[in-house]
Give the backbone structure.
Amino acid sequence: MRSLRALIEDEEKKLEKENLFQKGLDEIEPSLELSTKIETIKQQSFNSKLRYPEIYVNKRLLDLAYKINDSFMANLKSDKKITKESLEEVLPEFISAFPETRGLSKEILDDIKTFIINFVIGYGPISTIFDLAKDGLNDVIVNTKDYIDIIYEGKTEITPFTFRSEEELRKVVDKMLAENNRKIDEAHPIISSKLNDGSRVEVQIPPIAANSGTCVTIRKFNDIPLLLESLIDSGQMDYKMAYFLAKVSKGKCNIIVSGGTSSGKTTFLNAITRFVDDNEQLMVIEDTKEMQPQMPCHSVRSYEARNANEEGKGAITLDFLLRSALRSSPRRIIVGECRGPEIVVMLNAMNTGHPGSMTTIHADNVKEALVRVENMYLEARPTANIGFIRAQIVSAVDIILQLVRFPDGSRKVIAISEIEKRMEDNGVISLNDIFKFKRDTTDMKKVKGKFEVLATPSRTLEQMNMFGVDLDKRVFDPNFEMTREMLIEELQKDLPSKMCGWKNEFLNVFTKRDPSFFHRWPHFQHML
């Protein structure tokens, strides 16, 4: 980089000849479309926890930020290593050399500095979103250069962020893909990748992306997995459901977690791994690494599938990994999501000495989940008899858990069902519905309702007894009210502090995110 003083002098000479900005901070009249978008964002902000930096909703300030950024980028030397610390040091003086910045508040000047840093070493406005939304961010959805929406705490929000051009967006995409040694072009217009922090990235470009521009979806994952207690606090289930799930996990029941996109399937798998015995070897197999089992590190082995390279070679499928894993003598197996032929091996594993195994699938209800399993099996084994497939499912799977994300952003466990060891008269698999969520339809905007007990399980209780796990059968009495204290007595036997390196992170994050958490759940207080 040229000397800072030389850069500043050059800019001062240029600016003496230019009169591109009027004095003051009067906003340039934006286009009608931009005005509508900004007004929508302002209305949305009343119900959102997010407060967007002013430079992104004031066109004059945004133009100024781009102008300073362009000047700074033009003078960067690519052969020098650039760090955030070095940028933090030189940028304040560089920014102050522009006359238009005089009189701006420190907050706006800091926003301009962050704007430049994010373009130099980050992902432009996407990095700003990461910093702004933090743990509440679920997804970033880039629909061409003009629109960036987010899913924040389960709800979709319009943001003021954009990219200035398709070229600028593609540069950011290339930077993201380079972190995983991937690249995108017309010959390979769809790419799945991940960022250094583990976030999952899906990119489509024309001609596949029909929107005349690049489309990007980023799925963010929390650094700290949510606890069962957190899921109760958010209203996803009640005390009885939580107690039952802890017991079925301890009792080595084979579980399928079913739900749609962003319904919280992986979150639930993480939460119930906490109740797996420390001495059991857990094998985790995923298409893209998302799982964070709440277990000691020595008890967990994780494997991740690999896509084919540009020549179409080197792919390692979930099916291959699962077959390989079975030769490593795991006690339990978790497949992050079954979407194809791996379902055959998964059911075989559940049937042959790996009790307590778990997986997730995409389906909207419990019955549809069973049909989905049947269809995946048939796709892998087209000549298989449907009666044989159903017999395999009945023999292998104990519990199906159904999750739903509602339009208001809330998530619920709407059903927990047991697969009975028999078929209906028409040959369909018989289900014993144990719990369900009954929605109150008087308010269709806000999801309200109650969790109900429908029946007492039989097969599941037999499985628990086999492995020495006792369960208070009063939880299946609709008139019995389980208290928080009763649940705590059970949950405190399995605290997440056993997970290596997790105690300090847990304390720091939860204390900052929700200080009252430790008052609601006092069994964690000894960790403070």
Observations:
- The longest helix spans residues 59-74.
- The chain is about 40% helix and 20% strand.
- The mean pLDDT is 85.
